[in-house]
Amino acid sequence: MEIKNISIGGDHAGYAYKADMIKFLESQNIAVKNYGTDGPDSVDYPDFVHPVAEDVESGNAELGIVICGSGNGVAMTANKHQNIRAALCWSVQLAQLARQHNNANVLAIPARFVSYHLALDMCKAFLETPFEGGRHERRVNKISC
Questions:
Q1: Do the Cβ atoms of 42 and 9 come closer than 8 Å?
Q2: What would you report as the CA-atom Rg of the chain, rounded to the nearest whole angstrom?
Q3: Which residue has the higher pLDDT, 96 or 138?
Q4: pLDDT exceeds cutoff 80 at 87
Q5: Does 101 qualify as catalytic in the annotation?
Q6: Which residue of 32, 85, 115, 122 has the lowest C-beta tally within 10 Å?
Q7: Which of 12, 50, 81, 101 is catalytic?
């Protein structure tokens, strides 16, 4: 699956990672919709995560990336949307498994707990790993309420 567009958002703890990740994504010819925030001033992460989830749900973005300090707040917020499967990842293997087994469509990154290089490697794995389907599809179809 070649990804052509992504939505990205996060809070003040993740803005620097997000800025560098956008540069990387654009260098890969991936269109990026940036919902902010773009600075260190304290903000409320749901204001930047809901638009990402809405883009993924509506098909305006193929995947989403959300970033905050722990990754928990952004993942919880994104997962409030019916058709979102946001995965909080802190290793490349978790990012791969989130796509392979759970068909995750939003990657949640804990900026205060992973290096930028690891975050970028997780992003690459998330983009490059296809959903396996098969026995996993039955389980994924049972996630939504």
A1: no
A2: 14
A3: 96
A4: yes
A5: yes
A6: 115
A7: 101
